[in-house]
Amino acid sequence: MGLILFPIVIAAAAAIILFRWAKQVRHRNEQSWDSLVARLQPARDLRELTEIATPEERWQQVAGAQGLWAMYQNAKVMLDMADYAACHSESVDRELLATLRSDALQIRLLVIGALTQYAVHRLNDSIGVNALRAATMYQEMSARMGELLEVNGGMAVQYSGAR
Question: Which CA distances in Å does 94 have to 36, 86, 130?
Answer without folding.
Answer: 20, 8, 28
